[in-house]
Amino acid sequence: MEPKFGFTQNPTRSLFYFGESNNQSSSSDPIQPADTSINEISSSLSQMTFANEHSAEAVGKINSDDPILQLEGLQFIRKELSQKDNPPINEIINSGICRRILDLASTMPDDEFLFEATWVFSNILSGNSKQTAYLVNLDVIPFLFRLFDKTNDDIKDQVMWAFGNIAGDNTNWRDLIISNENFGYIIDLCNNMNFSNRNMIKTCSWAVSNFLRGSPQPVVEKVLPFVRFLKRIIVELEEQEILTDALWGCFYITELHSSLEAFQKKQFLEKIIRQLSTWKIELLTASLKTIGNITSQMENSFSVLFRLGFLEKIDSLLCHQKRTIRKEACWILSNMSTESCDVVAKFLENKLYEKLLHIMKTDSQDVKKEAIWVIANSATVCDSNQVINLAQLGMVKELINCIKFNDCRNIALEALCSYVKKVPDVINAEEKDILIKNIDLLVNCGEDCEHAMNLRELLNNRNGDENN
């Protein structure tokens, strides 16, 4: 399924066909604004008619006054909408039966009917934005919140599917859910859940990740209570699909809040680091992104993660076949490399700089840039002996080569400035000649070259000292 937000994670799901598109035939329909009226949506969807007489018969049953026939018709519609390929969402909407189902469900206490009705709504809501807009504008959100009064867990599971699909469609509707006065029901359901109900956990972890995602971001105070639920999943469970959704939730919530102590505890971090060995790209990506955010906010993150075996994991990820994984790995190292020369020592000891050099020489530009950030940040904290060790690896030469790339230039120049300040003769005569020519070229081309001028001044001062 193509995500509606453009993220890696799938924001909408159809029931019992996890991860598959619920409406592939309609994916090219234009996105409908969140405030589009029901009549406008109905008109634009009214070009389709029922493909078979059984659907028309089911609609007739739902429109009858017989509760038995109503349930039979509803169950047929639910089965039609649960098809893996091309479910007739437009046909069902065009029939006008959704309003009838909502009215019946709002007045009928029967759990079986409510279960089927909510399932129908969940699958319609997993369609495209126009189809989702139709139900939202029928006031399906207040109806769904009222169902939290039910004790039936199956109904609540369906409700969370529906809310997850609505929130996954656009941020306006996500915020409509979050700002509802009854949103606390969702928080209470998640934070007080019986973890023996794996289906409910799976649904809620995915739905919560949709409440946390998107731009503009949700109001942080509204969603912070989910930290408890997410942390519990990470620590207690092993199912990869549930862990993946929970880790995406952790990533989104660490984007919102600058300091979450709950995510800096040993038990939590240890579990995430274990996921760095997975071959599941979704789980690996979510784990790396979460660790990246934590290391950008946590003091002495390296010493904590080092004791948990982080370096052994990250070492192999720098050589991972997926470009995005290598990039995330470099970003984490760049966060850690600002901490102290002790971190640089461990990087040297574990030969991480050799791998970073290989990335700088051979990788795509976006990954190369992240690798250079590791070098530049390391340069601010390393001691003179470490500068010499890095130069002997060929780091100075490669940084000079990186000056020709616009998006890496200033980072590379900053690193070279730090090196020269700590070890004035770290750049040999041949490298200096090449560097001066590059700097002159930048100046002559009118480039923004403050960092280049600073470096040339440092080099000139070194020459003056030598001549004296």
Automatic annotation (TrEMBL):
Alphabetical list of Gene3D superfamilies matching this protein: Leucine-rich Repeat Variant (1.25.10.10)
- Keywords, comma-separated and alphabetical: Protein transport, Repeat, Transport
**Pfam families assigned:** Arm
SMART domains reported in the protein's UniProt record: ARM
Q: Which domain of life is it from?
A: Eukaryota
A GO molecular function annotation here is: nuclear import signal receptor activity
Q: Which InterPro entries match?
A: ARM-like, ARM-type_fold, Armadillo, Importin_alpha
Q: Which GO terms describe its cellular component?
A: cytoplasm
User: Its GO biological process terms?
Assistant: protein import into nucleus
Protein family per UniProt: Belongs to the importin alpha family.
In Swiss-Prot or TrEMBL terms, this protein is called Importin subunit alpha
Q: Name its species.
A: Blepharisma stoltei
